[in-house]
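**Paired protein data**
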Amino acid sequence: MEKTDAELVIASLEGAPYAFEQIVQRYERLVFSIVYHQLGRRQEVEDVAQEVFLKVFNALSRFDRRRPLKAWIAKITVNQCRDVLRKRRSSRVEAFSNFTEEEERRIRSLHDLSAGTAAMTEAQSRACLKLLDQLVRRLSHKDRTAFLLREVEGFGYDEVSKVLGSSQVAARIRVSRTRKRLLAALSRVLSGGETLKP
């Protein structure tokens, strides 16, 4: 039977060698995804992810086991990415592309719902994702994080609020506002009313 997050945390703190490895295996896809989408440089993903898990390991004794481990790890990851971005002295992220199939499905359904039309062709979908990539790169760090966690990673608003350090209402408003801005900009570009410069 698979152990819960809380059980793995306890076992890890008690020195069980398998426990932290299982935590890493359970959440490495999430960490890699956040790091890649925030920083946009493939060559940095592994190094930053290792730093994240080192911080998780060192802070595990301070983790409140009544809270979700997933949101706690995501928050550490987002903070680590923010530190890396600060070191670059730039708030602009270079890429938000190469979505997984699940991420593409979520974003396609988001666009299909907003447009109220039938599903897009594959070529239209690729073009839409490329445009969305450019638009997301222009978001502020908090808006980009909120959008990524909710619409790409599928976090609940309670988890998004914990990562952002805000109320659930504020997280909901931020995600909704960001989604509307992205969809409006996407529609303007797709209708030919606006062009995007790299």
